[in-house]
Amino acid sequence: MNRYLRASSTIEYDPMCDKEKPQRISFEDVSAAAFRIQSEIVKTPCVKSHMSTTFGMEIYLKNDFLQHTGSFKERGARNALLLLNKETKARGVISASLGNHSQALSFHANNLNIPATVVMPNVAPIMKIQKCRSYGANVIIHGHDMKEAKYHAMSLAKERGLTYINGYDHPHIMSGQGTVGLEIVEQVPDVDAVLVPVGAEACSPGSPPPSSISSRMCSSM
Questions:
Q1: Where does the source fall among the domains of life (predicted)?
Q2: What predicted TM-score, i.e. pTM, was given to this entire model?
Q3: What angle (nearest 5°) sits at the alpha carbon of residue 124, between those of residues 144 and 139?
Q4: How confident is the model at residue 203, as a pLDDT?
Q5: 144-181 confidence digits (pLDDT tens)
Q6: Phi, psi of 47, rounded to the nearest 5 degrees
Q7: CA-CA distance, 176 to 172, in Å (whole number)?
Q8: What CATH architecture is 27-220?
Q9: Picking from 15-24, 48-57, 75-84, 106-115, which range would have the lowest pLDDT averaged per residue?
Q10: Which of 30, 18, 20 is nearest to 164 (CA)?
Q11: HSE-CB for 88 with a 13 A CA cutoff
C-alpha cells in the first residue's frame, strides 16, 4: 500500500485523458485516422473460420496479429504520433506499457524519427522489452505493476519535456484502433455482430455495433 501512496504523489495531469472533460470520438475521427495511417499499417485479412460449421453461422476472424509488432496497437500508436506537431516530435514521446503498446509506439516512433521512451514494469515479458530496444526506444524498467510504471512515466514526461501518450484513454489512440471496425464492415458486408476482446477497451470505440441477432459474426484478434 505504501508504494501506491508514494507513486500517487508523483502522478501528473494528462490533458488527453481528463475525466472532468471527456472527449468524444466521431466517425469522422476514425475515418481520418484510417486515411492517415494507411501507408504503414497492414490492412489485415478477415478470414472465415472453421468454427462456422460447428456453430451454424458464418464466423470471421480479423487477423490483426499480422501487424509488424503483432497487435492492433500499431493503429493507434501511429495515428497519435502523426498528429503531434513538429516541436513535440523533436522533444520525443513517452508511455508506459506491459508490451504491446510499447512495441507499437517504439516501432512507429523509430519509423518517423521521433525519440521514444517506454517505461515497463518488472513483470513485463523479456521478449517484449528486447523488441522495444531493437526498435530504438529508450526502455526504462520501473515498478512492480502498470500503476507504478505509469506514474513514473508521467513524472518523467514533465521532468524531461516529453509528451505522454496513454495507450488506452487517449482519443487519438482510440481513433486509430477504431480503423479495425472500418475494415471489418468493408471485408464482411452485412456483418451482424462483432466480438471484441476487451482489456483496457482501446479497441472497442471504433468497432461497428451489432444490427441484429447474429448470423454473420466477426471476432477481432
A1: Eukaryota
A2: 0.85
A3: 95
A4: 53
A5: 999 999 999 999 999 999 999 999 889 999 999 999 99
A6: -100, 150
A7: 6
A8: 3-Layer(aba) Sandwich (3.40)
A9: 15-24
A10: 18
A11: 14
